[in-house]
Amino acid sequence: QVQLVESGGGLVQAGGSLRLSCAASGRTFSSYAMDWFRQAPGKEREFVAAISWSGGDTYDADSVKDRFTISRDNAKNTVYLQMNSLKPEDTAVYYCAADRRVFTIASMIGYWGQGTQVTVSS
C-alpha cells in the first residue's frame, strides 16, 4: 500500500515554470515506479511522464518532451515534475501515480493521488 499527496500546483503565465511534488507514505516507495498523469476538463486522463524505481529510466509524453522533467528522491519518498515553458494547453489536474512497474496507461495503475490543479494563462 502507498498513499500519495501532490503539491505545487497553481496559476502561472505562459512561458513560466512550476515544480510539482508528490510525497508518498510507506516504507516501500523505492520499489515503485512513479508516474505523472494529467486530466483537462472534458478529456481523458493522459500520461505525462514516468520514472523507474531506481530513477535510472525516465519516459516522457511527446507533448511535454524537452519541457518537463521527472525525478525522484527515494530518501525523501518524493517524486517531482519540473515543468518549464508552460503552455495554456498544459492546464489540467495533475495526478501522481504508483505501481510496481512503469505503465503509461491509466487503467493499469494501482495507486493514485488526489491531484493538484495547474492553470496556465495566456
Comma- or semicolon-separated keywords:
single chain, 122 residues, mainly beta, seven-stranded mixed sheet, four-stranded antiparallel sheet, 11 strands, 0% helix
Which SSEs are present, and which pair or pack?
Layout: E1 4-7, E2 10-13, E3 18-24, E4 33-39, E5 46-51, E6 58-60, E7 68-73, E8 78-83, E9 92-99, E10 111-112, E11 116-121
Parallel strand pairs: 2-11
Antiparallel strand pairs: 1-3, 3-8, 4-5, 4-9, 5-6, 7-8, 9-10, 9-11
Describe this structure in words.
It is a single chain. With 122 residues, the chain is mainly beta. 0% of the residues lie in helices and 48% in strands. Strands 2, 4, 5, 6, 9, 10 and 11 form a seven-stranded mixed beta sheet that branches. The protein has a four-stranded antiparallel beta sheet with strand order 1-3-8-7, with no helix packed on it.
User: What is the average of the pLDDT values?
Assistant: 95
Q: Which term fits the overall shape?
A: globular
Topology as a string of helices (H) and strands (E): EEEEEEEEEEE
Number of helices: 0
Largest sheet: 7 strands, mixed
Rg measurement, Å: 13 Å
Give the number of DSSP strands. Answer: 11
Poorly predicted sequence stretches spanning 5 or more consecutive residues: none
Summarize the amount of helix as a percent range: under 10%
**SS class:** mainly beta
How far is the N terminus from the C terminus? 40 Å
Percentage of β-strand residues: over 45%
